[in-house]
Amino acid sequence: MRPQLADMARGQQKIQSQQKNAKKQAGQKKKQGHDQKAAAKAALIYTCTVCRTQMPDPKTFKQHFESKHPKTPLPPELADVQA
C-alpha cells in the first residue's frame, strides 16, 4: 500500500506543477503579445503623395514635404498645418 500513497502524492504535485506552468506560459504570451513593429506601423497614418514615405503626424509630414519636395505644390491637407 505504500507505493500507492507515494503515487497519489506525486500525482497531486504533478497537477499543481502543470497548473503553475500553464499560468506561467499564459503570462509569457501576454508579455510577448505587444508587437512594436505593428504598433509603429499603425501610427504612420500620413503618406507623402510624391515619394510614398509614411509619417506619424501632419507637422512631420509638412516638414518632410517642404524639405524633400520644395518645387512641388503643397497638398491642401497641409495648407493650415503649423510647422
TrEMBL record:
Residues 9-20 have a biased composition (Low complexity). It comes from the Eukaryota. InterPro entries: MBS1/2-like (IPR045230), SERF-like_N (IPR007513), ZNF706/At2g23090_sf (IPR026939), Znf_C2H2_type (IPR013087). GO terms for biological process: regulation of translation. Transmembrane segments: none annotated. Residues 8-44 form the Small EDRK-rich factor-like N-terminal domain. SUPFAM superfamilies: Expressed protein At2g23090/F21P24.15. Residues 1-39, 60-83 are annotated as: Disordered. Residues 21-32 have a biased composition (Basic residues). GO terms for cellular component: cytoplasm; nucleus. It is found in: Cytoplasm; Nucleus. Keywords: Cytoplasm, Metal-binding, Nucleus, Repressor, Translation regulation, Zinc, Zinc-finger. It holds the Pfam family SERF-like_N. Residues 46-68 form the C2H2-type domain. One of its GO terms (molecular function) is zinc ion binding. Residues 60-69 have a biased composition (Basic and acidic residues). PANTHER family: GEO09665P1-RELATED (PTHR21213), ZINC FINGER PROTEIN 706 (PTHR21213:SF0). Transcription repressor involved in the exit of embryonic stem cells (ESCs) from self-renewal. Acts by repressing expression of KLF4. This is Zinc finger protein 706. It comes from Equus asinus (Donkey). The lineage of its organism: Eukaryota, Metazoa, Chordata, Craniata, Vertebrata. The gene is ZNF706.
